From TrEMBL:
It holds the Pfam family NfeD. It is found in: Membrane. It comes from Alteriqipengyuania lutimaris. Keywords: Membrane, Transmembrane, Transmembrane helix. It is a multi-pass membrane protein. GO terms for cellular component: plasma membrane. This is NfeD family protein. Residues 91-144 form the NfeD-like C-terminal domain. It comes from the Bacteria.
Amino acid sequence: MIDGIDNYWLWLALGLALATLELLAPGVYLMWLAVAALATGGLSFLFDFGWPLEIISFVSLSLISVYSARRYLRDQPIVSSDPLLNQRGGRMVGETALVVQPIESGSGRVRVGDSEWIARGPDTAAGERVRISGNDGAILLVEPIALIADKAPSDGSEPAAGR
């Protein structure tokens, strides 16, 4: 007991302070320390075993809660409903882009919407359309679009089915 305050009140206050810090600066770590502090406060209320055992209890419960949560989250990860939320280049895969600076020696620039991006792909003249096939960080990987008209044979016959 510290100056008329029971130990369990201090542990409960520490647990609530850690939980509040977790809300203010989320990182999914302080939450487990808050759980350990609250559990130590509960044990201290029930058994009143003194500071040394309470500190050992807090450290032990902290280790148990952190490693248990870590193992649980490793085995059952939280799956996002939109995994490409912060990957703008990944969200553009499949879209078409206009080449604004010719792609020469594997590098050029393309326009997607109102933005220009560095692009890598086969040599392509400015003004042609390309399809975005992937991204490498902020660099878009592009491939030429093969239009149906480009696939028609030059002798005037119909294209074969399945081409």
